[in-house]
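re: the backbone from monday

yeah here it is again, tokenized this time
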């Protein structure tokens, strides 16, 4: 077996540079990482492959001049198609024939590992926060029933209409708090699922928001090839509705909100790999979300509005999780953009 065939078996991207830092050879993993074929990469200046990079050119020259290996645990590379990569990079000079004066680069992509670790950490924190809130909600719910029952009994004993107004106020506030507690507890049953075109759900939610906000500009950018999804339509509609309503409020009901759908292939969600995944992106041109809220955005009772309950996104996330999906804020978008990932799965028996 030739050296090239052996290198192509490696998961790590391997690039061999000549003394002018031009590409002499790459393995299959490097072709995938750099999004180009070996024939096109050959003889290209290595640094010319990137629109921008955190890699210092003198760092590579130093490796050749001093004949010493150098490494960087976090190098950011941005390809000309704007795709950003974070890699762990090792450069070492070659001293064996016929590669004297050449350099071997090993690159291992780590941004996906970092993203999975971050998702797992955030998921644990979120579950802990939800468990705490639900525990408090249960503690509040029990005495609320007794409070409302006592007010109801007291009303029967009162004949003064003005005094009975006070007991009605107590019952009304108890009902309001009970409703808030029920929302805090979130959906506790997995909704019934069926095959449905996701655009049908999006259109229904969009029409409802458009009726409530006649000055809002709603832009649709749908992928017509999107296959049907095995989902609970009412649950996904509630998710989209919550995000659209937030977007409308963020733009004072007079801005632009864009709803976009796409299909992603070989997508990893919370450590599980899916062949296909539908993505619903909802963005607005509002002022954006304050940085201090981004890490806890999906926690219950977290809101950036004075009159907000902080439950809309928390409920949306619970519903998406029931579909083995994921909802996230796009960190690379100029404006506020939420991404809803719904994996394609087999229908449940």
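seq for it, each position gets an aa:
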């Amino acid at each position: 077996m030739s050296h090239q065939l052996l290198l192509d078996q490696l998961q790590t991207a391997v690039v061999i540079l000549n003394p002018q830092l031009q590409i002499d050879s790459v393995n299959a993993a490097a072709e995938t990482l750099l999004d180009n074929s070996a024939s096109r990469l050959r003889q290209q200046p290595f640094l010319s492959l990137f629109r921008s990079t955190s890699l210092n050119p003198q760092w590579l020259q130093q490796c050749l001049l001093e004949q010493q290996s150098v490494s960087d645990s976090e190098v950011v590379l941005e390809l000309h198609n704007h795709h950003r990569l974070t890699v762990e990079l090792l450069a070492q000079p070659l001293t064996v024939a016929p590669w004297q004066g050449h350099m071997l680069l090993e690159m291992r992509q780590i941004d996906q590992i970092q993203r999975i670790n971050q998702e797992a950490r955030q998921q644990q924190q979120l579950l802990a926060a939800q468990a705490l809130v639900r525990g408090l909600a249960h503690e509040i719910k029990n005495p609320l029933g007794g409070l409302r029952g006592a007010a109801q009994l007291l009303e029967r004993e009162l004949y003064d209409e003005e005094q009975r107004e006070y007991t009605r106020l107590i019952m009304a506030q108890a009902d309001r708090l009970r409703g808030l507690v029920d929302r805090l507890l979130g959906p506790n049953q997995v909704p019934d699922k069926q095959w449905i075109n996701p655009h049908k759900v999006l259109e229904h939610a969009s029409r409802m928001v458009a009726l409530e906000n006649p000055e809002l500009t709603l832009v649709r950018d749908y992928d017509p090839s999107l296959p049907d999804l095995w989902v609970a339509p009412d649950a996904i509609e509630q998710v989209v509705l919550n995000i659209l309503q937030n977007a409308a409020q963020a733009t004072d009901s007079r801005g632009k909100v864009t709803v976009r759908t796409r299909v992603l292939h070989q997508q990893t969600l919370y450590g599980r790999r899916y062949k296909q995944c539908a993505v619903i992106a909802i963005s607005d041109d509002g002022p954006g979300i304050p940085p201090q809220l981004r890490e806890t955005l999906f926690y219950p009772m977290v809101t950036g509005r004075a009159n907000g309950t902080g439950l809309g996104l928390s409920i949306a996330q619970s519903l998406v999780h029931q579909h083995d999906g994921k909802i996230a804020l796009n960190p690379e978008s100029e404006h506020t953009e939420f991404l809803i990932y719904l994996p394609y799965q087999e229908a449940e028996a």
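The radius of gyration is 28 Å. Residues 288 and 334 are 9 Å apart (CA to CA).
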